[in-house]
Amino acid sequence: MVEVRPEWRGGVGVYEFREQDAFRFARHVQAQTLERNGELKFRLCPYCNPKPTRDNLNSFSINLATGQFKCLRSTCGVSGNMITLSRDFDFSLGNEADEYYSPRRRFRRMKMPPEPIKPKPEAVAYLTSRGISEKVIKKYQITVQTEHTNILVFPFLDDAGRMQFVKYRKTDFDREKDKNKEWCEADGKPILFGMAQCSGVFDRLVITEGQIDSLSVAESGIENAVSVPTGAKGFTWVPYCWDWVNKFSEIVVFGDYEKGRITLLEEVSSRFKCTIKHVREEDYKGCKDANEILKKCGPDQVRTCVERAVLVPLKSVIELSDVANVDIFKLPKLKTGIKQLDRLLYGGLPFGGVVLVSGKPGEGKSTLASQILVNAVYQEHKCFAYSGELPNYLFRSWIDFQIAGGSHITEYQNKWGDRNYTISDTNRNLIADWYRGKCFLYDNQSVDGEEKESLLMITENVIMQYGVDVVLLDNLMTALDLEPGRANDKYEKQSLFVKKLARLALKYNVLILLVAHKRKNNFTTNENDEISGSGDISNLATVTIAYEKDKELTPGQRRLKVSKNRLFGRVETGGYVLDYDEKSKRIYGEGDDLWVDYGWDRLGDGFAKVSDEEELVFD
């Protein structure tokens, strides 16, 4: 039997439009597309498929907010929504939506007995032992097989009283001998058990996992109790019961309480938009399900479970009183190695947010960021770095110099007469051993062209897989090239990227250093407004640092400013003067130790290692 559905329901039903479905449809019909102004424009209309001329191009589009489509050619003019496209182009919107709008499955037309089924004594004996009265057993027409009186028969009747599904249950199930405890009649339409026995008043529907559980609710005087046909994970019934279920003003989920969770709850909540409630965990009284509550505590407790059911909490909404009481001065922080900055921030850069490091090109902001990364490794944090402007070997070379320090760097004159610096191979290997397993780098050489993966996705994977808690992304504009996002313009794309970074930092309590350029020409005195790109970039940052030249300083000096400090509110727009050591590429300020030893050249017993390439000089 095939149930005929209306052609489409204006978007009302099991399907809700998702933007990705429009892009999946484009791939399905192999169309060339362009996203513009919130619409996905097709080079050619898939309906009229006109000859490619200037007037015929880009006439067909799908609205990415609503899923509605239209062809603007007067000779075509077709319009509709994703359900229309699904029907006309054999395009799937998912199993539930496909079955709801265009059912293809054929179900058996089950023969209805001329009279209501009379329960056999064996069925009555078993169910009364489970606390179910003969009155309820007769109402739900439960019996046993004639030739196998140990097998219960549960007839599933729809709201019109037609039998659609039959389920069997063995009353003397032996796990060691029997293959199955429950099974279904072949080719039946999956619907909810107890639909025909509901009152017709659509105020509250109680959904349980097992049939005996819904009988237990009915036994306790609760009307409109149903159960799912094939267990907690079987939701094939949804397309065939969707309209009926949505007539009810609220659903109470009375699933099995196992391992600290209530079965059915998450799935029912995600599929139906009416008010969803669930039985309180404490009202289960240590029992697994409604039938066990009925037998151990009686019908009053079953009624209490339903009457005291509570709303399913909204995602992303919590009680303010449940928020942890945290001393913000004791939150974990990363020492930067710049004492003046660490003092201003009460110990360093806070975890759980994005720290924006800004400056004009070539003024040293990447050097400052990499030095902070070195200090993170020194403090036993695991780090991940992305450098969009330096090849892998150059990034490593730069950071190795900062780790080595001036005392392990050799100065020499090259053949052109210029001064150069080098680190011995032995010391480079010792440095590599020092940060092995603690510092990871995005491999710029591994991907190109269409093979590029989302940097955000890679960053999240690195955090989860390697335990990274400090991330350096240098810089924003090159990082955006790795994001396949479909934002309409660069500012929207920047804003979306930084929002996702902020969520990532908060979700995993990691520190993300984001390097961004300042505008080449600006006419504002607000440091946060000078960041090149969307204003959301600085708005979403926890701390904003500027590192830049100043005409009042000597050529090697820079001014470090803190223009935003969301955690403590303390800023320093006047700035701190920092010096730069060309030999070690280290940045330092007042009170800082230029010669700080990170201990990469120490043996386990604390003695320094000596390289064969190093010359020992005894005065």
Brief description of this entry?
The chain contains 18 helices and 29 strands. With about 625 residues, it is α/β, with parallel strands linked by helices.
Task: Give the SSE map.
Elements: H1 19-28, E1 33-36, E2 39-42, E3 60-63, E4 69-71, E5 79-80, H2 82-88, H3 95-101, H4 121-129, H5 134-139, E6 143-144, E7 151-157, E8 163-170, E9 182-184, E10 204-208, H6 211-219, E11 225-227, H7 238-245, E12 250-254, E13 257-258, E14 261-262, H8 265-271, E15 275-278, H9 290-297, H10 299-307, E16 310-311, E17 333-334, H11 339-344, E18 349-350, E19 353-359, H12 365-378, E20 383-387, H13 392-404, E21 410-413, E22 419-422, H14 425-435, E23 439-441, H15 455-466, E24 470-474, H16 476-480, H17 490-508, E25 511-517, H18 536-539, E26 543-548, E27 558-565, E28 572-581, E29 586-588
Parallel strand pairs: 10-11, 10-12, 12-15, 19-25, 19-26, 20-23, 20-24, 24-25
Antiparallel strand pairs: 1-2, 2-3, 3-4, 4-5, 6-7, 7-8, 8-9, 13-14, 15-16, 17-18, 21-22, 26-27, 27-28, 28-29
Helix pairs in contact: 3-7, 6-9, 9-10, 12-13, 15-17
In helices, the fraction of residues equals 25-40%
How many runs of DSSP E, i.e. beta strands?
Answer: 29
Number of helices: 18
Beta percentage is: 15-25%
Main structural class: alpha/beta
- Rg value: 34 Å
Polypeptide structure, described:
This protein is of the alpha/beta class. The protein contains 18 helices and 29 strands. The strands form seven sheets. It has a nine-stranded mixed beta sheet, sandwiched between helices. Helix 12 (365-378) crosses helix 13 (392-404).
